[in-house]
Amino acid sequence: MNYQQKLFLLIENTLHPEKNIYREVATALSIEYDAARRRVITDTAITFDEACTLKNYFNIALDSASEHEEDNVNFKFKKFNDVELNKRFEFVIKQLSFFLNHNNNKITITAKDIPFYCYYLVPELVVFRVYYYVRIMWPNSKFKNVQFDHQRIYDFFNKTIPDFSVKIKKIKDDYLQVDTTEIWNKNSLNSHMENILYSWEAGYFENKENALMLLDKTVEVLDHLKKQAIQGSKIHLNNNPQTLKAGKIHMYASEGMQLENTILIDANGSSQMYLILNNGDYLFTHNPYFCQRGKEYIENLITHSSPISKVSEKQRNKLFLTLKQKVGIVRNKIENSTLF
Fold first, then answer.
1. 221-243 pLDDT tens trace
2. Which residues constitute the domain of residue 306?
3. Element (H, E) at 183
4. Are 261 and 275 in contact (CB under 8 A)?
5. 261 strand-pairing partners
6. Rounded to whole angstroms, how far apart are CA atoms 112 and 274?
7. Same-domain check for residues 166 and 106
8. How far apart are CA 299 and CA 288, in angstroms?
9. 303 and 171 part of one domain
10. Each residue of 132-143: pLDDT tens digit?
11. Is 204 found in the same domain as 327?
12. Does residue 114 lie in a domain region?
């Protein structure tokens, strides 16, 4: 398979199954349908400029269609900041839509921190997460002197991010329809708890009630995740279960091994590996050597982990009890604090 064939295979894998690749390429390159067809079937060679146009239109990496080296990996970088918040939500929605529109996808998440999808289960956690990114992680913060009051920050995002509440619900609903394998351990909640405790001690909260509310919502998410593990499938919140598909969840409890924040996607015969950075940015690659290395890491994790979806009640209860105890420790520190 030559470079051009690989490029159009990549493009085809990004499309909804009902979309016609010839028509989509014709639109992207502003050419006739038949001219697009000749390029897709490689009767006509594409130019470098056309390849760049296709890259930007379909949001693919050109190196993904080239020959790969085992020790030289090219990553695509997706960065976000406080003026591009809308792009972050649109990026997540686009990725989830791809999963939903293609069958036989396999998505595996290793949860060094609570998977970011889980924040969308309750709007309050999303609002705090974005606030924390803007205030702490990104420079030139517009929230430098703004304390966290959920309603005030939510209203701000609702005004500045188009369809903010709609996008939150869309991500939540789509995530709950996608099949995932998720590997957690007793430390998966640490970063989230540290963010809340640091914000409290640094005086970022408007009052104690806002901090305790986030802990209540965290417990609500943990209870929901445990119910899903017991059932082996996702559970929609505030939805008629008849209206939306419920994705399957294969959950594992890992002990004795350090996790990373990764997402491995196997779709249509190709793989993609995402590395999620602490500031919310993404690095991802199609490099087959790197993805294979990621698969080996994950398979090794699973071998040394306990399945807790539908089975292993003891291990499941142990994991969620440990996570809830971490919430309780932070709650006691805040409740007994004299900052307010």
1. 999 999 999 999 999 876 555 67
2. 76-335
3. strand 180-184
4. yes
5. 111
6. 13
7. yes
8. 16
9. yes
10. 988 887 766 678
11. yes
12. yes
